[in-house]
Amino acid sequence: MSDFHLVFVGGIGRSGSTLIERLLGELPGVCSVGEVVHMWQRALIDGEPCGCGAPFRECAFWGEVGAVAFGGWDRVDPRAVLALKSAVDRTRHVPRLLAARPPKALADPLARYTGYYDALYSAIARVSGCRVVVDASKHASLAVCLRHRYGERLRVLHVVRDPRAVAHAWGKRVPRPDATPTSPEQEMARYSPGRAAVQWMAQNAALAALHRTGTPTRRVRYEDFAADPAAEFRAIAAFAGHEGDTPVGADGAVLLSATHTVSGNPMRFRTGEVRVRPDLTWREGLAPRSRALVSALTLPVRWRFGY
Fold first, then answer.
1. Exposure on the CB side of residue 137, measured as CA atoms within 13 A
2. How many angstroms separate the CA atoms of 158 and 217, rounded?
3. How many CB atoms neighbour CB 83 within 10 A?
């Protein structure tokens, strides 16, 4: 299936993107596969499990995807993909990659790097039978890379959340239930309030710049989504190409089924009923000094996103 559309969920982590991605995966004709950017390390090297619970290499879905995309996962050298990632998929390259044509020094590794993703997405669409593939990798640098491969076939769902709430979430210590004994990261990454603020600005500014190049983009403020999930998700689903009813009830309740996600927030393993509701714990949980620091650092750009 070569006529699929790619929906890339972008933004800084801990902004509610995993929940939105999971909801997209409940739509007919949509296949959501988690954070593909981490698949090369976490699934292929570290052997972390699929969202369905099976070890990655024992999952029938991913086994078929690997066969269609590459002739089998044993034909892929994940360390070679990671080397290409280090060469082009970096925040520092974003300004140069936002040009209409990539610089000569980046053009060849960029083509090879995005070629792996194209083979993968195409196989996902073929194996799943879906015309929309959702990648929730979030990294703005990867979205900018993929723009050179897909043009207007790339749709970016830019999820943004109050930077103080994001800083609070990044400070929490959260075990990774999908980590294996050999996984380098046994817990989800943590940022200091200052670093979270800087990353918030960098990621959101890069995605806003990508939008200005003409890449189809819909910005979703997490607070608006949590306040009226049914209406907001209808708009999100329409942007992804879905027409008709959505699984989100008027009360924000939705039933989540098992999915074949390759990496992401621990919520990727959750099934059954969940209810979308506002999360304001940061207002009491984020120390006043940290709140003041994040507010001051993000002030120059925060207003652009309605904060």
1. 22
2. 7
3. 12
Closest CA to 35 of 112, 126, 110, 138: 138
State pTM to two decimals. 0.97
Pairing mode, strands 30-32 and 154-160: unpaired
Burial group, residue 34, by CB count within 10 angstroms (0-12, 13-18, 19+): buried
At 64-114, the pLDDT tens digits run 999 999 999 999 999 999 999 999 999 999 999 999 999 999 999 999 999
Considering the domain boundaries, does residue 196 fall inside one?
A: no
Handedness of CA 244, 21, 95, 296 (dihedral sign): positive
190 belongs to a structural domain: no
Range of the domain at 10: 5-161+215-279
**Separation between Cα atoms, residue 88 and residue 82, nearest integer Å:** 10
Q: Apex CA 169: angle with CA 164 and CA 171, to 5°?
A: 100
